[in-house]
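Quiz preparation item.
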């Protein structure tokens, strides 16, 4: 996804939440060594958030769900006009797996991101699903279907476009 975004002069970094000590909870800082505040700062400094998750038993991974849980704190974080601090930020979703559920995972994650203030562009999701119960993961699958590549490029183009529009003109206060 970062390569597709780079085609639109968007730079970024991969942050694997699983590699950090992120505590469960619904606040911006759960204290006692919680590493979420540093990740949250990166999200707040970005215009585009890409949430990527594998499919586990037809669901987003538990780490993805924990990220959504932590983003729930944004419901009470507002600017001086009463807008959530995530207003004006764009989010897209990437899903991989070896089982059905890509549409369900995408829908669940997009809805949660929208609920906490992110804007979702048209065609803001991409996925790859290998052979059901297969042993080949995305990173080892070899050439990917053209449909996955086109969906990824479209999600990136639309995210970059929407981010620019929102940077130029923020949502009005309620």
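Solution:
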């Amino acid at each position: 996804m970062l390569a597709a975004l780079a085609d639109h002069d968007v730079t970024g970094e991969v942050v694997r939440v699983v590699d950090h000590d992120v505590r469960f909870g619904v606040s911006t800082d759960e204290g006692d060594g919680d590493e979420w505040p540093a990740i949250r700062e990166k999200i707040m400094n970005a215009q585009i958030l890409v949430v990527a998750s594998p499919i586990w038993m037809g669901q987003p991974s538990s780490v993805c769900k924990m990220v959504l849980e932590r983003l729930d704190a944004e419901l009470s974080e507002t600017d001086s006009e009463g807008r959530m601090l995530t207003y004006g930020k764009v989010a897209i979703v990437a899903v991989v797996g070896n089982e059905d559920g890509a549409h369900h995972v995408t829908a669940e994650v997009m809805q949660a991101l929208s609920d906490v203030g992110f804007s979702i562009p048209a065609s803001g999701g991409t996925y790859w699903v290998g052979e059901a119960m297969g042993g080949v993961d995305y990173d080892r699958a070899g050439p990917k279907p053209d449909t996955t590549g086109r969906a990824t490029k479209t999600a990136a183009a639309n995210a970059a476009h929407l981010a620019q529009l929102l940077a130029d003109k923020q949502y009005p206060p309620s």
